[in-house]
Design goal:
This protein has 145 residues and is mainly beta. The protein has three helices and eleven strands, in the order E-E-H-E-E-E-E-H-E-H-E-E-E-E.
């Protein structure tokens, strides 16, 4: 039987599921996605915030960063870290709507990050409970409270 057991507040729009022993190691980041670009001709790396502040800044050959990206002169580099539990790392790689985090040994299961379809807010949490306890957990991302 499905029973409402509470709600969860998502401040970043991302839910992190994991064992408390692993999650207590979370490092609080700046909630900032680091974007890194490689100049295709020289492999020089440019980082947003360090090498340029805005995408409208002139960077190379009198072109803005946006123009360089559009012309495929600057290629965005995907940053994938499957181990780090920092907020910044988790938010950096949620293109599929979820991210499986691994233990440093490469084994899955350290945590699972899930991007809600409706962003930040309160979401109801339901459980299917049998005589032995909680059998299934349901978080309804369609239903904001």
């Amino acid at each position: 039987m499905k029973t409402k057991i509470g709600e969860i507040l998502l401040d970043t729009g991302v839910l992190l599921l994991g064992d408390i022993a692993n999650l207590k190691k979370i490092k609080q980041g700046k909630h900032q996605i680091i974007r890194i670009f490689r100049y295709k001709d020289t492999d020089t790396i440019y980082e947003h915030g360090k090498d340029f502040k805005k995408f409208t800044d002139i960077l190379l050959d009198e072109m803005t960063v946006n123009m360089l990206i559009e012309k495929k002169i600057l290629i965005e580099q995907k940053q994938v870290n499957e181990f780090d539990l920092s907020t910044e790392n988790i938010l950096n790689d949620l293109e599929k709507g979820f991210k499986q985090l691994k233990f440093e040994t490469g084994v899955n299961g350290k945590a699972l990050a899930i991007n809600s379809i409706n962003g930040e807010g309160f979401y109801p949490v339901y459980a299917e409970i049998n005589k032995n306890g909680i059998e299934r957990l349901i978080i309804d991302f369609k239903e904001k409270e």
